[in-house]
Amino acid sequence: MTSQEIRQKFLDYFKSKGHLIVPSAPIVLKDDPTLMFSNSGMTQFKDFFLGYKTPTAPRIADTQKCLRVSGKHNDLDDVGRDTYHHTMFEMLGNWSFGDYFKKEAIAFAWELLTEVYGIPKENLYVTIFEGDASENLDRDQDAYDFWKSHISEDRIINGNKKDNFWEMGESGPCGPCSEIHVDLRTPEEKAKVSGLELVNNDHPQVVEVWNLVFMEFNRKADKSLEKLPAQHVDTGMGFERLCMALQGKSSNYDTDVFTPLIAKVEELSGKKYTGILEDEKDIAIRVVVDHIRAVSFAIADGQLPSNGGAGYVIRRILRRGISYSYRFLDMKEPFLYKLVAVLQEQMGAFFPELEKQGKLVAEVIKSEEDSFLKTIENGLIRVEKLIQQTIGNNQKVLPSEEVFELYDTYGFPDDLTRIIAEEKGLTIDEAGFKAEMEKQKLRSKADSAQKVYDWVTLESKPETFVGYDQTESETYITRYRKVENKDGEFYQVVLSSSPFYPEGGGQVGDKGVLENAVESFEVLETKKENGLIISLINGLPKDAGAVFYAKVNASERKNSQANHSVTHLLHEALREVLGTHVEQKGSYVGPDYLRFDFSHFNKMTEEELALIEEKVNKKIKESIALQEFRNIPIQEALEKGAMALFGEKYGDSVRMIQFGSSKELCGGTHVKNTSEIGHFKITSEGSAAAGIRRIEAISGDKSEEYFHNLEKQIIELSQLLKSKDVVRSIEKLIEENTSLKAEVDALKKEKAKGEIGEWKNAYEQKGNKQLLVKKTSLDAGSVKDIVFQLKKEIPASVTIILSDADGKPMITVGVSDDLAADYQAGAIVKDLAKEIQGGGGGNPGFATAGGKNLEGLENAYQKALTL
């Protein structure tokens, strides 16, 4: 049975049991402050469990792309070193939202595994929650009783809270769970040791394949448990492990989920995969084929590698794969990007985003490979220098601060530093390095540390967003909670009627005030969490249950929505000018400017940029009225021609924004007419990543301000130049400057000729060399020319020139070729540079150094005379 058939059988089975089959949500989360990535199948359904949203169906099934590389669920360090841990994996799941519960979930799981998939019953074990007295949680007797009708009691195992009470994070939906484990060992191995003894003991062939979670509770911030409004079922079956069991393999990597990728790595690297756990080459291949999946799906879902947040995690995973391939597969050139085509062929039919975005994914990965391989090459030079310094100081241990700097500042893998050091008979200060890592973690935690308390509920009124129609509204606080961070104590509030737009879709959240006749509070930001619009205020009202008036900062909202509307016009214009391959890949919409990232593989020309501006401004001048379809079925919106963005999760009903021929699915705020935008001006265009261009632009008030400043500058220039024809005056100045520069260069050459004639006669014989030490005010270029000429013409010579040109100290050293065995220009200049608080370098025949201490030139001069 192929992996594609295994996946399809799962979905077909649950469809036959009345489940709605839904597509996987994006692997990258954009509206959940508690998670960067989907780390389980239930992530996209969290609002249903908490009662914030109504599910589209009481029974749902899917396969969800998941990523576990940070936080509580972090499998990164295990990847490659065993047969079953992964960063990215598929989670097959069936869900019941207040419908069936334990009995049916257990029956479905048993029937599918034993009758549909045909796994021998004697190979299966199940666990149930044994209870926990500290939480007043009883043993899950119901699950035990239901399992008894399917499996012998001696195969039902009690499990502790760690294994059999599932929680998705520090807070949120949770409940007891029942795991199903499969024993894949040979009959001989089973005869020696019972599978009962190996369940949950990290045995590679006795593995958990499915987890049935019975969602009953919500874990609050104070760690207490409260009952959910309804009981739910949340199951997750590891697709890769299921394939291992059904294909008779002892490793996930031996299934057809991974073998095509492994075969391609073998072809590209010339290395043969043997499947040995301890073999570093095989570990590297497993790391590469796992990581390429995680990175490819993340990029396809819209998350580009970067230096912060989710983008940093993706970059870290990719760099881990590059590092392993560099060290153990001898791959010194980019090659991971060539695996994307194989992944597309394997999974593109089921995950269309991979098929659609394949070219972009490959380009981004190749660019990252190029960049990181250069980092490694530069790092090797730094490591070698550090090793030589350590040896020169008669030490055997590389200092932790320098090793950490290589890792943290330059991105050089610490384990590669370790390997190179060991080859030279050295070690690194492991304890010191770990201490530096811990300091960094503490700094990072301190910067992002935030304590969030539980909600205090005041009103049971409906909570609605009125910001599309109003910027002010009478309202109540329905709930609030305290938040503490490095900036102090604040309160998050949910309003019965909120005009504040929550950050999302690239648009910043609204700011404003919440006030009544008694008190007033500043609204510092507005975000969305689990379906709730949450505004942050700078204090707690004395009477939180009083009537308040919510007011959005009108000028900021006006400018933000002008910038948002213009991004739609910009998107359409880009597709018209550059082609329909252009797709939005990210945006920022604030009151001051907008940023728009889009797929395109070439730098835009000035003509293209001018045409884009012209097209957008034409639409602005046409005064096109907004057509808003606030609650339209998604299929109808798509049939009308609305643009849907990859990496976004849309519901059955959506909001469509239309300005003439521009139609997009969008939840942001917009102008009522394009004339409100005023004017559009592109301020920059550049590369955001491989295959991704970035435009920054302004509109509205900021555009008006931009042209006002330009006009002011032209007036000031006109006054300085004493001419209204500014362009002609500047052209004349440039011509005069060019002529004067030519005269200065000629004078410098004449002066240099004079210096050469004088300096040739100033060498003194010192030992086996002729030494010249001179001070000058000549510029660096002239000094370099002279030194090169002198070291060629004067045999057995060392030339040292100390310059104070432009008030900056510079030391230049030249050594004639016949003295190369005795004197090194680089070593001489390095020693002299200490006197001017500087540094530099070069080759054995020529070197330079600049510095900060001009007065130190005299000490350097006296020191040079003693050479």
Automatic annotation (TrEMBL):
Protein name in the entry: Alanine--tRNA ligase
Free-text domain note: Consists of three domains; the N-terminal catalytic domain, the editing domain and the C-terminal C-Ala domain. The editing domain removes incorrectly charged amino acids, while the C-Ala domain, along with tRNA(Ala), serves as a bridge to cooperatively bring together the editing and aminoacylation centers thus stimulating deacylation of misacylated tRNAs.
Intracellular or extracellular location(s): Cytoplasm
Catalytically driven reaction(s): tRNA(Ala) + L-alanine + ATP = L-alanyl-tRNA(Ala) + AMP + diphosphate
SMART domains reported in the protein's UniProt record: tRNA_SAD
Note on cofactor: Binds 1 zinc ion per subunit.
Function: Catalyzes the attachment of alanine to tRNA(Ala) in a two-step reaction: alanine is first activated by ATP to form Ala-AMP and then transferred to the acceptor end of tRNA(Ala). Also edits incorrectly charged Ser-tRNA(Ala) and Gly-tRNA(Ala) via its editing domain.
Residues that, per the record, bind Zn(2+): H564, H568, C666, H670
Family membership: Belongs to the class-II aminoacyl-tRNA synthetase family.
Co-factor(s): Zn(2+)
InterPro entries in UniProt: aa-tRNA-synth_II/BPL/LPL, Ala-tRNA-lgiase_IIc, Ala-tRNA-ligase_IIc_anticod-bd, Ala-tRNA-synth_IIc_core, Ala-tRNA-synth_IIc_N, Ala-tRNA_ligase, Ala_tRNA_ligase_euk/bac, DHHA1_dom
Domain Alanyl-transfer RNA synthetases family profile: 1-709
NCBIfam families: alaS (TIGR00344)
Any one GO molecular-function label of the UniProt entry: alanine-tRNA ligase activity
EC number(s) given by UniProt: 6.1.1.7
Alphabetically ordered keywords of this record: Aminoacyl-tRNA synthetase, ATP-binding, Cytoplasm, Ligase, Metal-binding, Nucleotide-binding, Protein biosynthesis, RNA-binding, tRNA-binding, Zinc
Record-linked SUPFAM superfamilies: Class II aaRS and biotin synthetases (SSF55681), Putative anticodon-binding domain of alanyl-tRNA synthetase (AlaRS) (SSF101353), ThrRS/AlaRS common domain (SSF55186), Translation proteins (SSF50447)
Superkingdom to which the source organism belongs: Bacteria
